[in-house]
């Protein structure tokens, strides 16, 4: 019997699989990558030798208002390390700069004061100016024209009414934007609900290029790049993280060039050929990304790539914050997967419902695969209403799956489905 740990909330769940059933365990090679430098040293080295731009301290000289975009509570950006170093680098070039830290929420709820202290530390919360993007407050946004897809571009005015715009984030595979990081700080990070919704329309999500690991010809990525360039994003700091959310590499400089270097690094550690199983088991990376069901299609989409035509997917998701957004909850409970997909397909891009992209991806997957959900954060009734099968723990989930696929079923395990990129079979 093999025991495998699956990230779950702030800890792990133990999965017990018989050796004769276990076909593969697929994990990103982040843990195998070792650096002789500390996390601080990696970030400092990136800031000292940026890609495609002068140093940030040089860019900051003579600037009055500087906006520094960071991620919200749903992302594991190690801002306690990165933000102090970014702020110090800015102030080396311009001690008198008026700096605003803008939290990029996308369509998420506002980051609480307690969460800000956990993310940034007391020093920054007590002494820096912090603003939170509210996608639902029209007064926060400036109209910056039309994006390549035809979507309107409404962006937080703090990104426009500044002399220097900087963004920090981290890079990992993303289930429809290709990879996170870089341009995503702008769109969806600090855009209005109208812009985010249209960028995530049914048509955009349904594109064959809107997939994990694909940037070229990806319509969602293309809009994001244009948006970030249009507001003159001058400098980014992006990091790569291991499974303990520690920095293993840092990339700073030009919006596209630095991001491309980071993407190449992450791809080298995360990409694997598909291994097909009758049962595929995964998790959503643990807290903070598994705090609700809305975020969970990221890992389920990874499992889908290994589940063949009708494999069973077992998903572990803490769901400490429940279902997630109210729109997601309504849509995922709308009816059968086919009915959900049919309903969403009729919605024009400019009428996109907030959060509809996650029910769309779930509907695509659930039309082919039964999904067993292991969580303590949702009731069995809630899980069934979302077209999934509830299980109290992994042993029960595996018993259910064997009952559906047979006791000799081949099992593929992807402990952290968010960190892995499954290459399409040739």
Can you offer a commentary on this structure?
With 426 residues, the protein is α/β, with parallel strands linked by helices. It has two domains: 174 residues, LarA, C-terminal domain (2-enoyl-CoA Hydratase, Chain A, domain 1, Alpha-Beta Complex); 238 residues, LarA, N-terminal domain (Rossmann fold, 3-Layer(aba) Sandwich), CATH 3.40.50. It is built from 15 helices and 20 strands. It has a six-stranded parallel β-sheet with strand order 3-19-15-16-17-18, sandwiched between helices. It is globular, with a radius of gyration of 21 Å. The two termini are 33 Å apart. The mean pLDDT is 96.
What key attributes describe this structure?
2-enoyl-CoA Hydratase, Chain A, domain 1; 20 strands; single chain; 15 helices
């Amino acid at each position: 019997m093999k025991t495998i740990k699956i990230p779950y909330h702030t800890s792990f769940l133990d999965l017990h699989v018989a050796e004769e059933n276990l076909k593969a365990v697929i994990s990103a090679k982040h843990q195998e990558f070792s650096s002789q430098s500390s996390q601080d040293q990696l970030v400092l080295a990136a800031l000292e030798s940026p890609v495609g731009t002068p140093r940030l301290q040089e860019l900051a000289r003579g600037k009055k208002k500087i906006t520094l975009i960071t991620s919200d509570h749903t992302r594991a950006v190690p801002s306690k390390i990165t933000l102090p170093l970014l702020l110090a680098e800015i102030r080396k070039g311009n001690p008198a700069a008026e700096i605003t830290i803008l939290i990029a929420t996308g369509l998420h709820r506002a980051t609480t004061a307690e969460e800000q202290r956990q993310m940034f530390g007391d020093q920054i919360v007590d002494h820096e100016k912090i603003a939170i993007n509210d996608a639902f407050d029209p007064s926060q946004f400036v109209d910056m024209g039309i994006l390549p897809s035809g979507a309107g571009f409404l962006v937080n005015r703090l990104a426009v009414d500044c002399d220097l715009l900087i963004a920090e984030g981290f890079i990992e595979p993303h289930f429809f934007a290709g990879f996170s990081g870089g341009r995503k700080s702008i769109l969806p990070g600090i855009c209005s609900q109208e812009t985010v919704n249209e960028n995530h329309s049914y048509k955009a999500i349904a594109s064959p290029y809107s997939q994990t690991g694909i940037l070229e010809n990806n319509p969602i990525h293309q809009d994001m790049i244009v948006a970030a360039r249009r507001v003159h994003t001058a400098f980014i700091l992006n990091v790569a993280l291991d499974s303990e959310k520690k920095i293993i590499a840092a990339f700073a400089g030009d919006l596209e060039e630095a991001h491309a270097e980071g993407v190449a690094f992450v791809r080298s550690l995360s990409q694997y050929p598909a291994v097909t199983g009758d049962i595929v088991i995964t998790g959503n990376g643990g807290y903070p990304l598994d705090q609700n069901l809305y975020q969970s299609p990221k890992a389920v989409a990874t499992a889908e790539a290994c589940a063949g035509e009708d494999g069973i997917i077992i998903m572990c998701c803490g769901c400490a914050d429940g279902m997630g957004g109210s729109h997601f909850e309504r849509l995922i409970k709308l009816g059968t997967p086919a009915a959900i997909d049919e309903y969403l397909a009729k919605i024009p891009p400019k009428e996109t419902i907030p959060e509809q992209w996650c029910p769309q991806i779930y509907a695509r997957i659930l039309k082919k695969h039964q999904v067993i959900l292991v969580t303590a954060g949702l009731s069995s009734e809630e899980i069934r209403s979302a077209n999934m099968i509830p299980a109290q723990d992994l042993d029960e989930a595996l018993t259910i799956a064997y009952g559906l696929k047979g006791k000799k079923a081949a099992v593929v395990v992807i402990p952290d489905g968010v960190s892995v990129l499954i290459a399409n079979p040739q």
